[in-house]
Amino acid sequence: MWIPDAMIEEAKRLGYMPIDPVSALLTHLSETLRNNLAQLLTYKDMRALIDRLEPEYRRLVDDMVPSLITHSTLQSVLKLLLTERVSIRNLELILEATSEIAPFARRAEAIVEHVRMRLGSQICSDLAVEGMLGVLRLGPRWDLFFHERMKRDAKGEIIGFDADPVQVERFSQEAGSAIRERMERGEAFCVLTTPEARPYVRLLLSRPFPSQAVLSHMEVGGGVQVKSVGSIS
């Protein structure tokens, strides 16, 4: 809501925090950029990032590509991270994690889950408020729901999620209600679930809550201070 300059002091007295138009515009532009970083990351950009690394990490990429992973898959891994607002500033660790899992998983979606586990401390630190990570947990009923509906290939790798649309809608409604309730209270939190369910929980929540962080238990290390804000049960 826009107010004239003459009302700024009155707004402060009432407990509001006035923001000047330039700051509001910069905040909006910053959010727009963050929401679209994945689309902006080109192959050329990725190559430029790799070329700036120390020689041993450039050799690591040469060892992986194309014998274990293609350049396009590596680019997809980085894009998937950016889509969920995970910084790729620690590209060295991302490449190390990718090299660990690439012999066993070729899909970018599977690779990125291992990468996220290795980036767990960074992810939690970026989400924490004053050193405290708020978590909204999935209850046992929904954890079991996702576990039972995973589709796996012959090697046991998860390749999809197959569930009754009615149950999916029920989950979306219950999760949406829990998330909105806490947002209205001004709480900062992530949704916490199992590693296998995480990408699918995120997928279902991404449209109504595009900036809502969804983490797996494996991303939350022992050194992270956790505060429970409830559960989706």
From TrEMBL:
Gene3D superfamilies: FHIPEP family, domain 1 (3.40.30.60), FHIPEP family, domain 3 (1.10.8.540), FHIPEP family, domain 4 (3.40.50.12790). It is found in: Cell membrane. Keywords: Cell membrane, Cell projection, Cilium, Flagellum, Membrane, Transmembrane, Transmembrane helix. The keyword Membrane applies. GO terms for biological process: bacterial-type flagellum assembly; protein secretion. InterPro entries: FHIPEP_1, FHIPEP_3, FHIPEP_4, T3SS_FHIPEP. One of its GO terms (cellular component) is plasma membrane. Belongs to the FHIPEP (flagella/HR/invasion proteins export pore) family. This is Flagellar biosynthesis protein FlhA. The lineage of its organism: unclassified sequences, metagenomes, ecological metagenomes.
